[in-house]
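user: At home tonight, take the chain set out below, taking as long as you need, and be ready to discuss the fold:
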Amino acid sequence: MADNFSADAGQIDDGMGQAMKAKIKEQQAYARAMSSRVNAAPKVDPDGVPDHAFEGFGTIEAQNQEKPLVPLMPERGILKESWLNVEIGDADKAEVRVVITARNIGIGAQFDKSGEVMRDRLPLEEVTDISQQGGAIVLQTNPEGYSSGRQYKIYTTESDWHALIEKNVAAEHKRVNSKLKLVRRVLRGYYNSRPYQWFLSTTIVVNFFLVVYESQIQPLPKTDPFCIADPTHARCGDVYENLQTFDILFTAFFALELAVNMYVHWFFAFIKNPWNDFDFIIVMISLVNAADIEGLEYLSGARAFRIFRLAGKFESLRRIVSALSSSILPMANAFLIGGIFLLILAVLGTEFFKKRDETNFGTMFRTVYSLWLMIAFGNWENDLPVLREDNTVDTGVLIYLIVVVVVLLWVALQVVLAVLLDNFIAATANEDNILRKNELLEANAQNLNTGGLEPLLMEMLKLFDTSEQLGRGIKKLFHHLDYNNRGTITYEKMHQGAKKLQTTPQILVSKEDWKILIGDGANCDENGDMNIAHFEFMMRSQVKSYVQRNLTDIAAMHEEEIEQHIILTALRLLLMLDPSTRMESLMVKVNELSQDVAGVRTKMMQAVKRIETAAVAVLKVCGAIFSLPAFGCLVAVTAGPFSSPCVNVCCIAFLGWLRLFLSRPQQDTSTTPPRPTSSLRGQTWRLLGASTCLAFPTRDGWS
């Protein structure tokens, strides 16, 4: 079958180049691998090398991935754990690792003996009913929730498991349904709304200009001696009291706003935002300043820094501030090098000129100050003139100034500016990439009839580099979705399992998406289910379509950049004109033909077995009837040539050999060596000997 497929593929185009022929050969090998794995049940050799397909993502390809697609078992916050028998839905009972935390029950993968890979996660907030049934704890879940109404049975004889689960479920329901959480959810919606953010930004701007105005006029209280002497002055009157009142109101408002922000985003979501940390510091300084503590009056100027909070509200300002902040550390390293050069030159200047000008070069710090004035302001006013009064040049001072200018101005300072500019450009480019990525995600969200697997496809393209890795990853994903080990994936399995993958956003496969994934019935069996061959074909097709859609969207984004637009369009056309699209349809036909051949072989083997059983029964009856030598001789003489023992031998040997040939196990020659022919040959000779004993008469009669 694979050879016929190869011949058909070779006739697609006689004039295609070497690259196209290589592509055809790759598709042929892929088709043979696909056809050999049709209806293949999951195989695990507990005594041999484990199948990595059951280890889940995160074990090979995603070692450096922060959040693997298939989740791992929790490592912290474990209240109780053990290896127990568990049933999930209609799956068979299996002994796996079970872990209970305050909010979840983690169930390990059946084929992962290390207990690290998670087969399923049950949020305790979704448990609607707990009961005891035949020595098992039965947990019923919410049909609209994360577990899609699955029923979980945990078999254990320990009573504390049932008590612990009931306690945690009750606590989780109380936490989720508490009024405080409802209030927090409502406040979060109002706080993150666009009108409130605009109001907050306007308040920050008004407060900033009031701080600037107060710093300009420097108002004085009425009790100040200056105001007592001239009460009509602009700095006197009610200005001071009004500005103090506004300052208290703004401080109270920003303190209340900070408290609300902390409440609705508590805890990690708040502290991970650097703008929240910055605002917390500014508000604390404002509260200390409002307390009017003696000696801390200078802290009032910190209120002006609150204007930087606008950078977190407006995209353009945020990008600039983020780029500058990311450039601080590299620029500090360059400043350190410049400071070292400055100190070296200061030490040399002190040693050379401390006797000639003790005021400016008497100590190292005085020399540093003098050099700083010269670098910053070009000021060289000291007792070390380059030109003496007799118009002669002081060579030592001239050389020293030249070295200072070259080392500090032309080298060190330029290095600092270069590092700042380089890191600023890199950070800006990174912000641009993030913006382009968000635009691409928005474009993907607007695509229609895609199958709904875009988040999964994006993560898989990050994880896998080669076709072999992609195939292994698809196999892992198949076994994860096939939670009951039936060898097929239905719509219910796809819908329930896809949203349990750790993708952002969560994958919700609808029935329309399922029709697209199975190709309107072309890539599934008669029941509408996908086996592992169908699933791999579907995933590879989805990956290719996803890349084509991304190329189209990116080409549209770079439409003004004509070179990149042409390159991306050409790549897209190459993928569209790829002959693999024709090969894919042939591979589907190969899979269907393989299924038909497997069914015919099973029926033939059953028919031969029935014929052989009937023949053996007839021979035994004949042997019993023909046990008398006289009767055997009479039959041998009267029956003619058709009663020849050779005919009996040939018939029995042929039927037995045909059964051996059709019942021999099929092996995957890509992974294991072919079965030696000597085994089949030996069985044939033994069968021929047994048939001869049955066919030829002996001293005691017919065998």
